[in-house]
Amino acid sequence: MGSWHEQRLRVRYEETDTMGVVYYAKFLVWLEVGRVGLLRDIGFGYSEWVKREIQFPVVQAHADYKASARFDDVILVKTKIASIGNKSIRFENEVYKLPEMKLLATGHTVHALMNKHGSTVPFSPELRERLTSS
């Protein structure tokens, strides 16, 4: 659906476990970093969602791990909008170690679109257009 957004990161020491590799849950944090960057770059960052009193909590998260990362590695997180339903959105991700572009993980998250009262709501035509044109 959308084009890939790229976000570079450097593995921090606190992201590693006692074996010296990135703790698996940190990959989910990196998916969020990619998602936030994508939305910001298309002009619809989190502050815009807050102004419109829209929330989109994660209702599903999935990751397939292919290889490890270690402290100070440079990471590339690729994120795109995979699909937009009536009341949900799915982001796809790929995580690579640079410079060799070694695939470390793939994953996705699904988010429900909710109002400030916690009820699901449909995407407005304007919001759908803005997200699909990215």
Structural topology:
Layout: E1 5-10, H1 26-41, H2 46-51, E2 54-55, E3 58-65, E4 74-84, E5 88-98, E6 102-112, E7 114-115, H3 125-132
Antiparallel strand pairs: 1-4, 2-7, 3-6, 4-5, 5-6
Distance between the termini: 9 Å
Largest sheet: 5 strands, antiparallel
Instruction: Please give the number of β-strands.
Output: 7
How many structural domains does the protein architecture include? Answer: 1
What is the residue-mean pLDDT, rounded to a whole number? 94
The side-by-side strand order for the widest beta sheet comes to 1-4-5-6-3
Number of helices: 3
Q: What is the level-2 CATH architecture name?
A: Roll
Radius of gyration: 16 Å
Structural class, from secondary structure content?
alpha+beta
Q: Strand fraction band?
A: 35-45%
Uncertain residue segments: none
Helix proportion of residues, in percent?
A: 10-25%
Can you write the helix and strand succession as a string? EHHEEEEEEH
Question: What descriptors fit this protein?
Answer:
single chain; 134 residues; alpha+beta; Thiol Ester Dehydrase, Chain A; 5-stranded antiparallel β-sheet; 38% strand; elongated
Provide a concise account of the structure shown.
The protein is of the alpha+beta class and 134 residues long. It has a single domain (5-132), classed as Roll (Thiol Ester Dehydrase, Chain A), CATH 3.10.129.10.
